[in-house]
Specification:
This protein is α/β, with parallel strands linked by helices. The strands form five sheets. It has an eight-stranded antiparallel sheet with strand order 6-5-10-11-12-7-8-9. A seven-stranded mixed sheet has the order 15-14-16-17-13-18-21, with helices on both faces.
Length: 694
């Protein structure tokens, strides 16, 4: 008896009506969905996304929009069922559950979903790959991480090593086969060190997680990851820092030590709970940055006054400024210049940022009863010559510090005030008598850090100033002499490294009388200026006139700039196209549609532009470009963690369908043919941006 051939696959039946394939492909009903979709799309010379539209039209259904997915909807149906039937719940209401499906004829799935959720099931069509990615992203973050790491060179993860805290001489390297989330964390840490970042921010941001680096005092975007991946990265960091990963409801602090390409880096970790997740901040401390005063790029007229302050045998010297302004760095540099072999120097810190030889450093630990006040009481019985207090925060600490200075000790401390004169009012607020302040106060500094203009690409200003430069020159009364440009050496920022701006207040007899007489802060400020103190603004303008920085940078740090920042919320699109006419047309269409646009003439210029503008939301690239074509540019974008998830639209005049398939398989998100139809082009851009934010 001759058996009848197996019935053909339903997907093949639908496509045959639109694209007669003859004998080109044979699929029976037992063929797995993902194989059927892939083979049919390849045989038709189309993409699976276009195939989804064809299937949706046949069943009179909508195409699934994953940007509308609600996390709570996926909880209504068991994960095992979703994987077996390749479906994913998108949205839910009191009566309906919208579900993405690759086989709309799966009536068994419809009945079971309706039973499990208690809602009527409404299907929307999606490709098997889209559904699988959605399931993995929701239930198996490690798989999403593996996909991300598959695009990144493995050696990036292997270059980071964790050094056990109790055995600094031994090094434990994460093995190549370690969990993907550990590898991803290593990549982030390694890239942060290479980028000269001082801090890493791992933070939830709406429905996604983002990782940012603080480089030269400015936060820069690094990567976006799904929230489940972000949570696992935070847990990995907590394990490294010896914190309790089970406790997600309280802030925690920890420390770790790593080696990146043979450089030892100390990590100071902090986590705080948010509404639905946790945020982690990692401070990177490179012991190579612990310098002496002569290495801090102080202005030539400031080095000697600082040394005279720390040369006192008693009294209080205060360093003031906001968080991150370099107060601790300055105080550490001062301590390094002291003859440790001849005097007893003791510190109380929270935390100890750098370990300095020859000093006794005490870590504040409230859980063990070690506070600034209690540690200071013990130190006074240790015959100290110099006492360094990481920060004077309360009245008890301030009182003990004053008593220590009155009994023949030099006390160095930091305070959070806006200027040097503000230290007097702060001590008074903490309950210190003005007579005690006047007799113990030796001086104070107020400090800020500004970015130094890049020496490799700075441009001398010749001729007229720009509109912004003119406005700032009038505001500050100084003409800039250089302009920031951007190059590979400075990562296209126009700046590399930072330098301190100092306001140095030396106690004089006139100033002491002002304190005793109860002078206000403004009166003390006038006395200080009359006796030789130069304000921060003057120190900053000296740096501008010498060509070390710009007025824009000074305004960013010292004043409220009138440059509008609202533009940062507008999607930023990069167009890489060598044809100037097409590039201008595309840029004009997108600008008219309300987007910010940056233009690049080829792939090399596009990579440079991405380095200068880490807020780019979408790349539109041409295939045929000099120096670096579209294929190579796409490969580089997908091979770097920073840009691996950046949406890309391929723009080309080619009519070859195989090229489209090749670019989509390589990681392209959409494909637009020339000539550009403005309405069609903008709609495709909007669709890709919507998908990217899911």
């Amino acid at each position: 008896m001759i058996e009848a051939p197996p019935a053909s696959h339903w997907l093949l039946d639908i496509v045959q009506a639109e694209h007669p394939l003859g004998e080109a492909i044979v699929l029976d009903r037992t063929t797995p969905l993902h194989i059927a979709w892939r083979n049919v799309a390849q045989s038709c010379g189309t993409t699976q996304a276009k195939l989804a539209k064809l299937v949706a039209a046949h069943f009179h259904l909508a195409v699934a929009d994953f940007t509308t997915a609600q996390p709570r909807a996926a909880k209504l149906v068991p994960e095992k069922f979703l994987r077996e039937h390749l479906v994913f719940p998108l949205r839910e209401s009191d009566r309906q559950l919208i579900v993405a499906i690759a086989d709309p004829g799966d009536y068994e799935a419809e009945q079971l979903i309706t039973f499990a959720s208690g809602r009527n099931t409404v299907f929307e069509v999606a490709t098997p790959a889209e559904i699988q990615d959605a399931i993995d992203g929701h239930f198996a973050p490690d798989r999403a991480v593996e996909q991300l790491l598959s695009r990144v060179h493995a050696e990036m993860a292997d270059s980071v090593r964790v050094v056990p805290q109790r055995a600094p001489e031994s090094v434990l390297a994460f093995e190549a086969e370690s969990a993907p989330i550990v590898k991803l964390t290593n990549v982030v840490l390694g890239d942060a060190v290479r980028a000269r970042a001082s801090d890493i921010h791992v933070e939830p941001f709406g429905e996604i997680g983002r990782i940012r680096f603080r480089v030269d005092g400015v936060l820069q975007g690094y990567a976006q990851v799904p929230i489940p991946v972000l949570n696992r990265v935070v847990s990995c960091l907590k394990i490294m820092g010896g914190m309790d990963i089970a406790d997600r409801l309280r802030p925690q602090d920890g420390r770790a030590h790593i080696q990146v390409e043979e450089h030892s880096i100390d990590l100071r970790l902090s986590t705080v709970p948010t509404r639905d997740s946790e945020k982690a901040v990692v401070r990177l401390l490179d012991p190579r940055n612990a310098k002496g005063l002569g290495d801090l790029s102080l202005a030539s007229d400031q080095l000697e006054p600082i040394r005279s302050l720390i040369g006192h045998r008693d009294g209080i010297v205060v360093v003031t400024g906001p968080t991150g302004s370099g107060k601790t760095t300055l105080l550490y540099a001062a301590l390094r210049e002291m003859p440790a072999g001849e005097i007893n120097v003791m510190t109380v810190e929270d935390p100890i940022e750098y370990e300095l030889p020859g000093l006794t450093q005490i870590q504040v630990a409230p859980k063990r009863g070690v506070t600034f006040a209690s540690a200071l009481k013990s130190i006074l019985r240790q015959d100290p010559d110099v006492i360094f207090i990481g920060e004077i925060r309360d009245a008890e600490t301030a009182a003990i510090a004053v008593q220590a200075s009155l009994t023949g000790h030099l006390v160095l401390a930091s305070l959070h005030t806006n200027d040097a004169v503000g230290a007097i009012a702060r001590f008074a607020d903490l309950g210190v008598e003005r007579g005690e302040i006047a007799s113990t106060f030796r001086g104070a500094t107020a400090q800020r850090l500004v970015r130094r203009i890049c020496s490799q690409c700075k441009q001398d200003i010749v001729g007229e100033l720009t509109e912004l430069e003119t406005r700032l020159a009038l505001r500050y009364g100084a003409r800039p002499v250089v302009r920031s440009v951007g190059c590979a050496y400075c990562s296209q920022s126009g700046f590399r490294g930072r330098m301190p701006l100092l306001e140095i207040l030396l106690a004089t007899p006139q100033f002491e009388v002002g304190i005793l007489d109860g002078a206000t802060s403004s009166q003390l400020q006038r006395i200080a200026l009359a006796t030789g103190m130069r304000p921060l603004r003057a120190a900053a303008l000296d740096r501008v006139r010498s060509g070390e920085t710009t007025l824009e940078e000074i305004d960013r740090e010292l004043g409220e700039s009138d440059v509008q920042v609202a533009a940062a919320t507008i999607p930023h699109i990069l167009i890489a196209e060598d044809d100037p006419v097409i590039r201008k047309v595309a840029a004009g269409v997108l600008t008219t549609a309300g987007y910010r646009v940056t233009e690049a003439v080829d792939g090399v210029a596009a990579l440079e532009a991405l380095g200068a503008a880490p807020d780019v939301s979408l790349v539109v690239l041409d295939l045929a470009m000099p120096r670096m074509n579209g294929q190579e540019l796409l490969r580089k974008l997908r091979g770097t963690v920073t840009t691996s998830t950046l949406p890309v639209i391929v723009l080309t005049g080619s009519t070859d369908d195989s090229t489209e398939t090749e670019m989509m398989d390589a990681g392209g998100d959409d494909y637009v043919r020339k000539p550009i139809n403005p309405e069609h082009f903008v709609s495709r851009v909007k669709a890709v941006l919507r998908r990217a934010t899911r």
